[in-house]
Every structure is written in C-alpha cells, then in structure tokens.
Amino acid sequence: MGPSLTNLLKDSESLKTGMRGExxxxxxxGYDMARSIFNAMIDHRPALIARCxxxxxxxxxxxxxxxxxLTVSVLGGGHGVSGLAVCDxxxxxxxSRMKETTVDPDRQIARAQGGATWGDFDHATQPFxxxxxxxxxxxxGIAGLTLSGGYGFLMRKHGLSCDNLLSAEVVTADGRSLxxxxxxxxxxxxxxxxxxxNFGIVTSMEFRLHPVxxxxxxLVVFPIDQAKNLIRYYDDFVAVAPDxxxxxxxxxxxxxxxxxxILLVCYAGSASDGxxxxxxxxxxxxxxxxxxxxxxxxxxxxxIVENFNPRGKRNYWKSTYLSGVTEEAADVMLQRxxxxxxxxxxVVLYTLGGAMAxxxxxxxxxxxRSAHHVMLLVGMWDASDDDDKNKAWVRQLFTAMKPxxxxxxxxxxxxxxxxxxxxxxxxxxxxxxxxxxxxxxDPTNFFRLNQNIRPSQT
Length: 458
Ligand SMILES: Cc1cc2nc3c(=O)[nH]c(=O)nc-3n(C[C@H](O)[C@H](O)[C@H](O)COP(=O)(O)OP(=O)(O)OC[C@H]3O[C@@H](n4cnc5c(N)ncnc54)[C@H](O)[C@@H]3O)c2cc1C
Fold this sequence. Notes:
By secondary structure, the protein is α+β, with helices and mostly antiparallel strands. The protein contains 14 helices and 19 strands.
C-alpha cells in the first residue's frame, strides 16, 4: 500500500512541529532550491524534504518515512552525479544545514556534521595547519565522498578519506543512533569505509588530521600535440614518484577553445622538494603554454578544480581503473577526447598509489587499491537536446578503454552506479561481508538509493 497524499500532508505538520529544521513541500518557497543539485540533469521531485538541523531531526525523519512507507534519499553535499540524493515522490532527508566542524588540534582530530562539505572542513582545520584527505572541489560533501572511499591530493601520503575516518554517528533504518568506532560497532565502521550510504545516515564523522600547511602545487598546461608523449611519460614517472606528490593529468579544453593537456599537482612538502621532484616530468614535454606552479596554501590548491566543474551543467560520468597506460591506451584516450561533442567534457587520470595502496584490501570495503590510476570520463554540457550524443561519447570511450582497464568502477565517479551496482566485482569476500552488514543494519533495504548492497533476503 502506497502512502496517501492527504495523510502525508496532514502528518507533515507533526514532522514540522517535532523538527528543529524545516519541512518543505512542493510549491513552498525553498523547495526547488533544495532539490536542485550539482548535476542539472537531475530533476527529481520528492513528496517532501526534511531539512534537518541535527541528529534528532534525522531520526524523526527516518521514523516518519517508516510510518508512511516512503522511499528515502539522503542529501549531503549534493555532488553525486547519479542524483540518488534526490528521490522522486519520497522523503528526501537533507543534511545540508548540518555543517558544523570542530577541531581538536592537540589530538589532531576533527569532527564534522554529515552535511559538511570539504570547503567547510578545510576552513575549520587549516587555521591549525591541519588537513585530511578530501575531494578536490570545496562543495563536495564529506559524507558521500568518504563513504565510498574518497580520493584526493593527499591520499598518496595519508591514505583515502575513509582510511582517516575514526568514528561516525549513524542513524540506522530503525531510527536508532549508533556510534561506529574501533570500540563500538567496529563492523559498522568497516562498512562505512567504502560501503556507501547502505547502513544508515551519517550525522557526524570524526577524522584523523595531519600537518598540512602550505604545499607546492598548481596547474601546468601543455599543447595537445604533446599529449601522447606526456601521458606515457607521466605513467612511468608517477609509478616511482614520492608519496608527497598528488598528481592528476587532464585532457581538457581551455576557455578560448584550445584543447590542452593539463597537469594538476599538489606536492605536500617543501616547495624546493616539490620543484625538484617535478623537474624531470616538466623537462620532458617542451615549453608549457602556462605554468602556475607555486608555493600556496593547501586551500588554494583545493579550489583549482572548481573552474573545470561549474555547478548547473548536465553531467554524465563513468570511470574505470588502469594498472598503467600503454601507448595504445594513450592513443585511445587522446583520439576519443578530441572527438568530444562538448568543450566542457574532459578525461582525467586521477593517480592512485602510495599510502592508500599499502592498506590491505580487506581492511576496508574499498576496492581496487592496487590500480595505478582511476580514469574519470566526464561528459558535461548545457542543452538537454544534446543528452544523447554526450552520453554516447562517454559510453563509447568507456567501452574503448575496456581492453586497457582493470575490473571495477569507482562508485563515486559513476552516473550509473546506483542499481546497476548490485553484486559488481568487489572481491567476493568483501561483498559477502557487506551483505552480512546490510542484513544486520538494514534488512529491509530501507536505504536503497545508493550504490546498493541488497540484503540477502530481498
Ligand atoms: C565537481 C565534483 C568533484 C568531485 N571530486 C571528487 C574527488 O576529488 N574525489 C572523490 O573521491 N570524489 C569526487 N567527487 C565524487 C563525489 O565523491 C561523489 O559525488 C559523492 O557522492 C559526493 O558526496 P555528496 O555528499 O556531495 O553527494 P550527495 O549527492 O549529497 O550524496 C551522494 C550519496 O551519498 C550518500 N550520502 C551522502 N551523505 C550521506 C550521509 N550523511 N549519510 C549517509 N549517506 C550519505 C547517499 O547515498 C547519497 O545518495 C566529485 C564530484 C563532483 C561533482
């Protein structure tokens, strides 16, 4: 039996009265703003939106959804390109007001609420010269990113975001608040490190911090005719580069329409060491069109990628893992990139390795720690009439890279990661463990708008 609209609207008053935050219904001021997310292709309309102010609000919203048999979606930073954070016709539990971040500089720990973004987090920790691995765009949510792993400039030195997650407060499907830590519900903590939003709503997260003040980083832009040469050399270079170096290589289009190959780096060490480290790579590829490498605050290097990823464009993304880039693979990347129908689309080699690769595959639910790169295929454009050709471009590039890729996708970088993901090739042992956790914490699959792990009985 589905929810009755009349009851829903009548009872939403009781939810409004109980909550410290707001409840928004279709047509009300703020409703359209609240349901709009990074990816403009997502136009879902929840029956109601609970904009929670605290963990008690979250628990109330969960109980309300149970009582009315509503599908639930959970919004953190709103960067999930698949749009699973916004449901159609159900209850969207919106944590975007819950951003508070507190720092204990002596213990080098920060605790942030589940709707905080990496911008909120860095803003709180950087005055103490501290940071942890976080996403490259300030408006990405800490929760969505961490729960599925969390790649960032610092991962080669300090591990993934989820490797630095020390504990979390979670509202589970039955409305209880649980702590997941090394001492309390350690199985749940394991699942939160890579298992996505399957086990509950994370209302706060505690992270280990590291001394990170100024770094050496920025962009270096080369002409596209250097791309093949640079990709091949880059692959060899980063395989032996120090863990301080967090590098990405991007095939993209400059604002004036020039296609280019772009190095984006963050060296988490001294400027002189960083310059020395990068010298062989820079010398290999002739004169750059632009070199902006400099010593800069960590927060400055964290804001560079935003220029390539403005909010409000239509997005279709896929990703694949690479254990290296052969000449043939470099050629596929380049030729397909040159055929991109939109100047906003780009191809990224997001380089892995270092500390994140030294953590055992079974220690967390994250897959593919041993790959050398995750290759991110970003289709980005403006007009809905162009949806088909831009999606087709991403899919064709993804298929063309298959022979050069290792198994697996990074759920955080995949538009289709939702329902398609069930049973996909995590190691069998990891998947079984995740499913056992799902059986324990969410046996009815109440939280299913995510990279879903289905309970064994459904
Ligand atoms: C511009 C851009 C840059 C990015 N850069 C990086 C990067 O550098 N590294 C990287 O690893 N990824 C990156 N990503 C991908 C990003 O990690 C995912 O999109 C992630 O899902 C974003 O989390 P969110 O909270 O912002 O998203 P949302 O869309 O709000 O949430 C996505 C999903 O996460 C789950 N979720 C979110 N919050 C909670 C919560 N509090 N409790 C339980 N479940 C929750 C839900 O299942 C939800 O559907 C980027 C994405 C974008 C759009």
